[in-house]
From TrEMBL:
Pfam families on file: PSI_PsaJ
Similarity comment text for this entry: Belongs to the PsaJ family.
Protein's recorded name: PsaJ protein
Keywords in alphabetical order: Membrane, Thylakoid, Transmembrane, Transmembrane helix
Broad class of the protein's primary localization: membrane
Top-level taxon of origin: Bacteria
InterPro entries referenced in this protein's UniProt entry, alphabetically: PSI_PsaJ (IPR002615), PSI_PsaJ_sf (IPR036062)
Keyword Thylakoid: yes
Transmembrane segments: 12-40
A single BP term in Gene Ontology: photosynthesis
Membrane topology category: Single-pass membrane protein
Signal peptide: none
A GO-annotated cellular component: plasma membrane-derived thylakoid membrane
Length: 49
């Protein structure tokens, strides 16, 4: 019975880790995109003279 409780605890830890990693990955991707667009803006909205 003890091993079944451990398995449930590990499974809940696995389920809670996935969304956390997803949010972190999306945050890093969006931050990288925002910083890149800050330094190299789209030329459609900032045309060269």
């Amino acid at each position: 019975m003890q091993t079944q409780n451990k398995q449930k605890a590990y499974f809940l830890r696995y389920l809670s880790l996935g969304p956390v990693l997803a949010v972190l990955a999306i945050s890093v991707a969006f931050s990288t995109w925002a910083i890149f667009n800050y330094f190299f803006p789209d030329l459609l909205f900032h045309p060269l003279p």
